[in-house]
Amino acid sequence: MDLIWNGIATAFTLVFGGDAEVWAITWLSLKISGFATIISLLLGMPLGILLAMSRFPGRALAVALVNTGMGLPPVVVGLFVSIFLWRSGPLGFLDLIYTPAAIVIAQVVIALPIVAGLTLTSFQTLNPNLGLQLAGIGASKAQTLWLLCKEARLPLLAAVMAGFGGIISEVGASMMVGGNIRGQTRVLTTATVLETARGNFDLAIALSLILLALSFAINFILTHIQQRQLTRWPKPS
Amino acid sequence: MAEALLTLADIVVRHGQTTVLDVPRLEIFHGETLAIIGPNGAGKSTLLRVMGLLQPPRGGAIHFRGERANGPNTLVMRRRMASVLQEPLLLNASVYANAALGLKIRRLDRAEIRRRVLPWLERLGIAHLAERRARTLSGGELQRTSLARALALDPELLLLDEPFSSLDPSTRESLLADLRDILRQTAVTAVFVTHDRHEAFMLGTRIGVLSGGKLLQLGAGAEVFTRPVDEKVAEIVGAEAGIRGVVEACRGGFTLIRFEGGAAEAIGDFSPGTPVVLCLRPEDIRLSRESGACETTCNRLAVTVVKIIPSTPHYRLILDSRAGPLSALVPRAAFESLGVREGDALSASFDTAALHVITPAKR
Question: Using beta carbons and an 8 Å cutoff, which residues of A are at the interface with B?
Fold first, then answer.
């Protein structure tokens, strides 16, 4: 038990004492994961909406692929992104392996199907005629899309949370494509793995606590937005 | 007639190989309420979507106030109309926010939106629900909100797609009466699509009969209901076509028709020898226990009661005669005084004016 208490105590000292390295790792994690979340939302939401609202040959296959992608193991993603970005790989000329950009790419690949799949189901919960009715009272295509997104905001925010959750907690891919290089590609998850392996449990605990706090803070904000205007369930009489 | 507000020309809509709508010409005139009646799958909703510029037709042209809808201008035109679809599709927001949505889409300022929405909430009896969330409303309240949303737009053309089909009868009646008053008072041009004769007759200043994607008849309500052009229309508007006969003579606008077991006089010009079908609305048939053969034209025939279907406020009697099947609607009091039972032989009579003659459909 002492190990845990000492760890927590050290963690607080590190966090609130302003340990430069810990804060640098945290900031890098936030930047990488934030960037990856935004890109996966920008790509995944339109993809999900497109899959929900259009009918084309091969759509069922595309939906099945997206659903499979929702459970993609990060190490598999790490492996393939590594191969692609490897100096001798197809995208080797970009010189991205072991850079933060490589981690962003891998995290986007992990989160994109999650966002797309949950966006797809969000839109499928809407009445298919709602868009037509909105057009029938004068909404333009863009207004219709915006109103539909607003109407599906509860499940859509769940998609955002799930996408962010998949990214911030992921370690395998970051390790493989980022290389866990100190000061360059070391993020909260990879640093935790390293410090645990070294037996520096106090530092590992500190890093995990920061990770948890970050994850909680962001999900708390999103949940607050999501649950702001919730219809009360009727009480059984 | 006045200038048409909306004109459809050579409209064709296909789903795959099936033609779901084929309307060579249809004009909607200022201030009228055109009720389109037809069975399920007749193409009514498709027609309404085409009119509302929500579904581009495969072929043909739509003119709104003389201007052809052509893609780039459809949004502007669409914003001068309002469509109310079958289900009351509201957003998960308050009644007021829903009713104000169309105006918000048009980027009107808050005060103006309020000024235009509140009177309609009042007029439709939902002002007290303004702050309630749409999800907590009853079916009738939802549909009233949906109507308020469309009416607040002050549209030049209001398009209504069976808005009352999912409501219970009493809610439907009260909403129908309100809508009728609103349409008459505001003189808004409207197209109302329904499968219900009663709704069509109650709201329509003109009635169109649609079946299999084709407009079979278009005319004033009373005309369509009493003078269907063929058996199909007769069936849709409820003027039952049953008695088959042959024209025996025709003079001075009156036609004498001979059928098995009797003869009848009807209004119309047909050449002698023409096979015809007689249409009679079930409510225009009088039943009695008088018997005796009819030597001359007496608009009467002997019938047998096949089946009695109790209903309110009438009893429906399924009858059979030597000339063909018939059905009659008999008021409860008359039914009880006659003491009818299944299998009884009765005499059915009708007025010349109630009889409508059509030529049989080609089979």
Answer: 127, 129-130, 132-140, 143, 147, 150-151, 231
Q: Give the orientation angle of helix B95-105 with respect to helix B139-151, to 10 degrees.
A: 30
Q: In chain B, what residues touch A150 (CB-CB under 8 Å)?
A: 91
Nearest CA in chain B to A140: B75
Residue A135: the pLDDT is 95
Measured between CA atoms, how close is A133 to chain B, in angstroms? 6
Q: Could you tell me which of A86, A127, A77 has the C-alpha nearest to residue A104?
A: A77
pLDDT tens for each residue of B185-225: 998 999 999 998 888 988 999 999 999 999 999 999 888 88
Q: pTM for this one?
A: 0.81
Are B21 and B12 in contact, with CB atoms under 8 Å apart? yes
Nearest to B87 among A127, A135, A139 (CB): A127
Interface test with B, best of A133, A140, A145 (most B CBs within 10 A): A133
User: Which residues from chain B sit within 8 angstroms of residue A138, using beta carbons?
Assistant: 75, 78-79, 82, 102, 105-106, 153
ipTM: 0.82
Chain B residues near residue A135 by CB distance under 8 angstroms: 54, 78
Per-residue CA distances from B207 to A99, B12, B198, B227, B297 (Å): 72, 21, 12, 12, 33
Compute the nearest-CA separation of A164 from chain B (Å).
26
Contact criterion met (CB < 8 Å) for A136 and B52? yes
User: What is the per-residue pLDDT across B34-61, written as a single tens digit (0 to 9) for each?
Assistant: 999 999 989 999 999 999 999 999 889 9
- Statement: residue A76 has pLDDT above 50: yes
For residue B363, what pLDDT band results from cuts at 50, 70 and 90? very low
Mean pLDDT of A6-25: 83
3-state secondary structure B279-340: EECHHHCEEECCCCCCCCCCCEEEEEEEEEEECCCEEEEEEEECCEEEEEEEEHHHHHHHCC
- Single out the residue of A108, A83, A96, A114 nearest to residue A32, CA to CA: A108
